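Hi everyone,

Forwarding the result from last night's run.
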Amino acid sequence: MHSHATETLKKGEKIVIVGNPNVGKSVIFGLLTGRYATVSNYPGTTVTITGGSCNLGGNSFPVIDTPGINTLIPMSEDEVVTRDILLNESIKLVVQVLDSKNLSRGLPITIQLAEMGLPFILVLNMWDEANSRGINIDVKRLASAMGTFIIPTIAVERKGLKELRDALSEKKYPSILINYGTVIEEGIKEIENILPESNISRRAIALMLLAGDESLKSWLKRLINYPDITRIESVRREVQEKFFEPVGYLINQTSPSQIYPGVP
């Protein structure tokens, strides 16, 4: 984890755009990449992803637009693909697009990105719609709580695009710290000690495994031995036995109010 650190985005490093469905993610992608894009199915799936490139200061950066999701602890094929891109593609910067009038829908993804240890920028799109509904978001306070760049935009009017492009040149690592309670935190630590290094933090993978994420099994089998896989499953069961509700539900329900009280 690189909390509070800022690094320069280097030529050729990959940027990925993530967000809930219908937040204007693809409009942001189009504004950053221009008219040329490639559309393909993610390997082994029928899920469509779009690729393009963004020119910043004379340097070209690959950009991937991912399917709309509601969580990075996957419950659908789209969510598995987006998680796998973050896990396998050596992503160096994430742009998360949120609906300004409904931050509480997008902030669980923000928490999960922070747990992954990935640098990201939050784009608060549909800013005008939030304002017209009387929703006031304190951008400075939110940026301070997250430890990252926050860019209000009205994508369909290209408003905020310059500010977003300026922010893309730096990788700012978030400073969000979430506590899931003693039992879950102890389970996280035990699983972390078994896991190999990857493009995202061991902590984030441990959270997915505690949540019962079956889609990680093939990835795990390639990287660790059978006794370790059995131990991870045993830790997951031990943690689950201490709760009435599914651990995955408890993790997903961790309130964004921990980082930004009064979130709309």
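DSSP finds eleven helices and nine strands in the chain.

Cheers,
N.
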